[in-house]
Amino acid sequence: MGNVPSAVKHCLSYQQLLREHLWIGDSVAGALDPAQESSQLSGLPEYVKIVEVGPRDGLQNEKVIVPTDKKIEFINQLSQTGLSVIEVTSFVSSRWIPQMADHTEVMKGIRQYPGIRYPVLTPNLQGFHRAVAAGATEISVFGAASESFSKKNINCSIEESMERFEEVVKSARHMNIPARGYVSCALGCPCEGSVTPQKVTEVSKRLYGMGCYEISLGDTIGVGTPGSMKKLLESVMKEIPPRALAVHCHDTYGQALANILTALQTVVLCSPLLVETIAGPWCMLYVSPPREILLSLLHILGEESAIHAR
Amino acid sequence: MESSQLSGLPEYVKIVEVGPRDGLQNEKVIVPTDKKIEFINQLSQTGLSVIEVTSFVSSRWIPQMADHTEVMKGIRQYPGIRYPVLTPNLQGFHRAVAAGATEISVFGAASESFSKKNINCSIEESMERFEEVVKSARHMNIPARGYVSCALGCPCEGSVTPQKVTEVSKRLYGMGCYEISLGDTIGVGTPGSMKKLLESVMKEIPPRALAVHCHDTYGQALANILTALQMGINVVDSAVSGLGGCPYAKGASGNVATEDLIYMLNGLGLNTGVNLYKVMEAGDFICKAVNKTTNSKVAQASFSA
Q: Is A254–B222 a contact, with Cβ atoms under 8 angstroms apart?
């Protein structure tokens, strides 16, 4: 977030702004003022990792298909912000997701900075092998906690999808490639309505058990609110350690930051919590809180998120 | 979808609807008087118990509120609903009472620069003015509410200390305001600074006499409100459709949308007494009158479904 509103810039001295509103500065470390640190809420993790899903989850849900060179440039710019995980693309058939048709070119074309991870979605073995051939070193699989959504979205039942993912994750582990698991509809389903925390826990446990190092719980249609978020996490955390969990909150009903704050408060202190965000423009149907807004929340909470915001 | 309540939250949250005043006064389009009246009458049927109607300020300063007297006289005042109006000085107060107002508000700031820029006088001068107004109001058994703007930051001065906000709040409370609404005027606050502010103010003013008025300029409003609720505050100001942009940041949003607030509170299992769908209908009505799309995410999601 570098766009200081012009009126604010006019009123505030720029130095004061940098001092008082850390997210606009060039560097977080060193700018942290003891007075700001004291405003940290109690019961929060010390470190929050942001997983940037804009290039994949974001762009795949935009009507406009972004040209390959612009995607590559976008990802290269993100690589220079301090983000440590950037989801690049999805190795799915272009018949289903034309926005991701250039997955191989994008994967090959981006500059892979050392220390940054570039996971890609691989819904099946074929996609997995293509991803590896294109240079991917981390993959994700995408399950759902709702049967109807699973059938509608990936054309098979939850059980069938799990069997497919087992093959993928097994191959990944065989090649020492980390695999991440997503569970969509974690707080509600566009088809079925309410989804029980128990169902989400069951699916999460399955993905974790097959070898996914981390499970991202997705509020796919953004219907969750702090109460349902807390209830969900309490259920899932009985089976999966907090350090292996992430939240992926959509902002469809404006609840995302409140839900993320609740997740931060619910997770055990000192566990890194992964929060997924999408930089750039809002998607029409599936929106996540812009990274810039999340950053301001985190920084003023006193979180060290090791992001050098521009 | 039953969702479990977070612990430590109030059972009931009172929503103070400021759309007709704070919202419309910050919109470029001046809404015709009859549409304002219709808007407020619609809001009166949603279950809201407090609706801020207008502002008795000079039309030279706030042309959007020039028809304050006609609006106040024109609305239907439903029993059990309160219709406060802003009265920055004695003249405005007397006009308000003559027009049928039975509750008033005064609007101070926790920043000297903002006070001078916004109401053309120092904080101290404004307090003296408000003392006169609140004294007259109390004399007539008219409740007075106090606002403190720039509670979490000022467009001119930058950071504002919780101590300063506490000092101004205490002054307003001491002169007889029954409730103090702490306003994050430029929406720069985040949960940490909200908590710090409330910890300071609550040393001097009981939580039941406090409200939060969070702007969503940086998208932080609901997170800040949630934090305030967790600290025992149970009065929240909001504006239907998120009416009223930010006069200090062109194109930015202003008030938090009542619809989005209700959505969160409903999800938490908290009682508000307000019907979300009726609020959305009123929001749809006023957005057409103002000729803009809603700032409420809930309304956007619902109307596009």
A: yes
Please indicate whether, in this complex, the C-beta atoms of A225 and B266 are within 8 angstroms of each other: yes
Inter-chain residue contact B297 with A254, CB threshold 8 Å = yes
**What is the value of ipTM here, to two decimals?**
0.90
Question: From the CA of A254, how many Å to the nearest CA of chain B?
Answer: 5
Chain A CB contacts of B114 under 8 Å are none
Per-residue pLDDT tens, chain B, 305 aa: give them. 333 357 789 989 999 999 999 999 999 899 999 999 999 999 999 999 999 999 999 888 899 999 999 999 999 999 999 999 999 999 999 999 999 999 999 999 999 999 998 888 999 999 999 999 999 999 999 999 999 999 999 988 899 999 999 999 999 999 999 999 999 999 999 999 999 999 999 999 999 999 999 999 999 999 999 999 999 999 999 999 999 877 766 667 789 999 999 999 999 999 899 999 999 999 999 999 999 999 999 999 987 65
Residue B287 designated active-site: no
Measured in whole angstroms, the distance separating CA A135 from the mean position of its chain's CA atoms is 21
CB contact under 8 A, B226 and A262: yes
Which of the following is catalytic: B150, B177, B214, B246?
A: B246
Task: List chain B residues with CB under 8 Å of A17.
Answer: 158
Token pair in block for residue A95: 């018949």
The shortest C-alpha distance from A177 to chain B (Å) reads 37
Kindly report the three-state secondary structure assignment for every residue of B110-173.
CCHHHHHHHHCCCHHHHHHHHHHHHHHHHHCCCCEEEEEECCCCECCCECCCHHHHHHHHHHHH
Give the Cα separation of A75 and A85 in Å (integer).
Answer: 11
- C-alpha atoms less than 13 angstroms from C-alpha of A13 in its C-beta half-sphere: 4
- This prediction's pTM: 0.86
A-B interface: how many C-beta pairs under 8 angstroms?
135
